[in-house]
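Sanity check

After download, print the first record. It should look like this:
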Amino acid sequence: LAERVINAQQDEISLMQQWLRDRQLPVPEARATAMTTMGGVAHAHHMPGMLSEDQLKQLDQSRGKEFDRLFLTFMIQHHRGAVTMVEELFRSQGAGLDDTVFKLAADISADQSSEIDRMQKMLFTLTTGIPTL
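Expected structure tokens:
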């Protein structure tokens, strides 16, 4: 699951970066949290679903079954954030009109919704011991 998520998100990031380059727009660095400096103080812009520093620390300190449970829980949160961003895009007047942006957003919504369902089933099995179909 983790490998699939990494591959999919790397492809999405590459596509978005190329879209920006093609339009000679600034291309942000790919990293977990976008940072800007205002008045000499760094501020994180948290997108929906982004993990907090505490959540990242909690995940880093966990092992075994607890790591798996947290990983699935936090990835569900992260994927829901992406789906929320797509919904907000499609509700915005004049947004998503570019074919590439529309297709990417629609693919993200479909793929991540499917992964959420898969992760919820994995989490259920992990926490209850009952396999799902």
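If your output differs, re-run the checksum step. Summary of this record's structure: The mean pLDDT is 88.
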